From TrEMBL:
The lineage of its organism: Bacteria, Pseudomonadati, Planctomycetota, Planctomycetia, Pirellulales. This is tRNA (guanine-N(1)-)-methyltransferase. S-adenosyl-L-methionine binds at G113, I133, G134, D135, F136, I137, L138. One of its GO terms (biological process) is tRNA N1-guanine methylation. Residues 209-239 are annotated as: Disordered. Residues 229-239 have a biased composition (Polar residues).
Amino acid sequence: MRFDLLTLFPEMFPGYLGQSLLNLAIERQLVEVAVHNIRDWARGKHKNVDDRPYGGGPGMVLSPEPVVECVEAVQQMDSRPSRVVVLTPGGRRFDQRIAEEYSEEQRLLLLCGRYEGFDQRVFDILQPDELSIGDFILNGGEVAAMVVIDALVRLVPGVLGDEQSNKQDSFSSENRLLEFAQYTRPREYRGHQVPEVLLSGNHPEIAEWRTQNSLERTRQRRRDLLDGNEQSPQPADNS
């Protein structure tokens, strides 16, 4: 899978791309990531990419020319079909279902906004997906793009050491519940014990405990995920 990141601040990405699971996925050529500076497509001596909004108002708006021409040029850099995604507060809310949907794509172009956003003609011409990671405002789309990549990389075959891992994650298509509580050594810490059933070696009982624990955690924290139906899918067995 290939990600193309289109941004005015490419210097934000090297540290992120060089760490942890994503870096390993890139090294193993399971994932490709290319970063492009929108300003490279700006016109004029000063390479301006924004201007004051027509009609007045605060801030600056990203101009259509450098953005549209950057996207079109980047699309031509690889023969694989690309899906253009704009990170914007006005987009549909990103969740695990959308992550699974996007994981089927060969290539995503993630367009990161800044300032007061994009000139509307960017949307009219490119017809991109519009995506939001939540009901709050960030300084730009770069952090949101990192969130999207982090969620998708886990779904690329071969990236995770255990292919069952992402199926047990909270919100996955095979498990709409919150994930069950996890424990490791030591068996006791500051008076808090590991549940005995997890030490029993009885895998059917462990699976049942995890199912009930997931249901209870979901009921307490995110009852909306149950959709009025307590008979939600069971978490995958980890035996």
